[in-house]
């Protein structure tokens, strides 16, 4: 079985392979895939296309919002990846992929030909699904669901909020990246507010009626932030349908909520390039075959990370990292005419509630037919010791260090 392998457990044919693989997007899926394609076959010609020269991780960005980490500590460059033989990094944006002529159009540079494309563009937002929630509205009600200027904007708004103010977080409908992260954000905002503006309140308006770690979060909120965080279920008026940036209000049908700082996390779909290339289904995500992650809509295009439909796997950085390795192994196996080893997929996510209190969910998956199916794991135990909760907070740091080294080579 292959699980997070650093080398393929079979011998590659001696014949050198000069196939050109283009990886689109240098985030959790894309950067990992470049690293592992190169490890599995250093003769491959690999081009990574990523607009930004620095990558800012969403994991730990909630800590930046709470003032627990500096922005500089969640920022990485591509220099070490680029220093590898046969790896070329182009800082540009892919604007089109012609799957028939196998050509990629870039916003600025000249077009590229490819043998295979790995697409890991993350998510885009379904602007307008919530009335008045357009791109411009995010300058007033930030989403902070892509790390960077939006993260800093939300942090600044919380710093400027009066003591006794209300911070609203709205949790979107449908599949979205990082299912536990809105609740982690509520927790860490509470950590910041409890220290700095203790009369403040946090209102979590949820489109859903339930979420996996609900019991764990509710227990922690009661203990750490009593009476500070209120959670409203979708069926009880939590599902936002309209926003009003002028009056600092959001609406769930006829019920209105007024906030001093409002974080609207919009509903999501695959990154726009996946939509443009015609790779998405009716829900806006990309269906792929296993174990290769090849698109069911176009040959030689592989979609990994948040953008793809990956069975039981949630949309997480760790999931994207695991998928990237399996996809790289499938591409290299295919090029060398070797049978792909049986894949084992893994994912985990830590939610930090204060510097000494964290919970997690770790899962392992295998293929059942063509479907990635959870075979073991799940969330932390509800009744655990203070020592374990503290240990989880330390493990979260270790997890972060190792996954970012796996992407950016340390
Ligand atoms: C607040 C928050 C906290 C989170 N915490 C965790 C956590 O603790 N653990 C965890 O596992 N996950 C966490 N996540 C989820 C994690 O960030 C995502 O699941 C992960 O980033 C998905 O990887 P990806 O490769 O699909 O997309 P990304 O990592 O977003 O990478 C996509 C890249 O593609 C590039 N791109 C997009 N379009 C184009 C184009 N047309 N041309 C070229 N490049 C393009 C983008 O610039 C970007 O760099 C969190 C998310 C949020 C929002």
Automatic annotation (TrEMBL):
Residues 341-408 form the Flavocytochrome c sulphide dehydrogenase flavin-binding domain. It holds the Pfam family Pyr_redox_2. One of its GO terms (molecular function) is oxidoreductase activity. Transmembrane segments: none annotated. Keywords: FAD, Flavoprotein. InterPro entries: FAD/NAD-bd_sf (IPR036188), FAD/NAD-binding_dom (IPR023753), FAD/NAD-linked_Rdtase_dimer_sf (IPR016156), FCSD_central (IPR049386), FlavoCytC_S_DH_flav-bd (IPR015323), FlavoCytC_S_DH_flav-bd_sf (IPR037092), SQRD (IPR052541). Residues 151-266 form the Sulfide dehydrogenase [flavocytochrome c] flavoprotein chain central domain. Residues 20-124 form the FAD/NAD(P)-binding domain. This is Flavocytochrome c:sulfide dehydrogenase.
């Amino acid at each position: 079985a292959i699980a997070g392998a650093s080398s393929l457990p079979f011998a590659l044919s001696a014949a050198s392979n000069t196939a050109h693989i283009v990886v689109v997007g240098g985030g959790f899926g894309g950067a990992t895939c470049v690293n592992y394609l190169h490890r599995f076959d250093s003769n491959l010609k690999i081009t990574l296309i990523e607009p930004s020269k620095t990558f800012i991780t969403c994991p730990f960005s909630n800590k930046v919002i709470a003032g627990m980490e500096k922005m500089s500590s969640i920022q990485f460059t591509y220099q070490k990846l680029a220093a590898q033989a046969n790896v070329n990094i182009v800082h540009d944006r892919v604007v089109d992929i012609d799957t028939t002529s196998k050509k990629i159009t870039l916003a600025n540079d000249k077009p590229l030909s490819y043998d295979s494309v790995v697409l890991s563009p993350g998510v885009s937002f379904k602007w307008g699904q919530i009335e008045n929630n357009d791109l411009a509205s995010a300058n007033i009600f930030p989403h902070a669901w892509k790390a960077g200027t939006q993260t800093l904007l939300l942090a600044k708004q919380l710093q400027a909020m009066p003591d006794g103010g209300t911070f609203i977080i709205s949790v979107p409908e449908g599949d979205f990246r990082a299912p536990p992260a809105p609740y982690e954000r509520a927790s860490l905002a509470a950590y910041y507010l409890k220290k700095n503006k203790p009369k403040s309140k946090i209102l979590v308006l949820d489109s859903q009626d339930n979420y996996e770690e609900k019991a764990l979060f509710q227990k922690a909120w009661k203990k750490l932030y009593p009476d500070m965080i209120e959670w409203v279920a979708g069926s009880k008026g939590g599902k936002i349908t309209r926003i009003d940036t002028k009056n600092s209000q959001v609406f769930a049908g006829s019920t209105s909520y007024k906030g001093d700082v409002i974080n609207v996390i919009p509903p999501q779909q695959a990154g726009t390039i996946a939509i443009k290339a015609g790779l998405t289904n009716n829900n806006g995500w990309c269906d792929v075959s296993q174990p290769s992650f090849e698109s069911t809509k176009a040959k030689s295009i592989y979609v990994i990370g948040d953008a793809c439909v990956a069975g039981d796997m949630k949309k997480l950085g760790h999931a994207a990292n695991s998928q990237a390795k399996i996809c790289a192994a499938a591409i290299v196996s295919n090029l060398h005419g070797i049978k792909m080893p049986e894949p084992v997929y893994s994912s985990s996510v830590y939610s930090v509630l204060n510097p000494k209190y964290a919970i997690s969910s770790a899962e392992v998956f295998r293929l059942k037919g063509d479907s990635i199916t959870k075979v073991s794991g799940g969330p932390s135990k509800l009744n655990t010791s203070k020592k374990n909760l503290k240990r989880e907070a330390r493990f979260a740091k270790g997890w972060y260090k190792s996954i970012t080294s796996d992407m950016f080579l340390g």
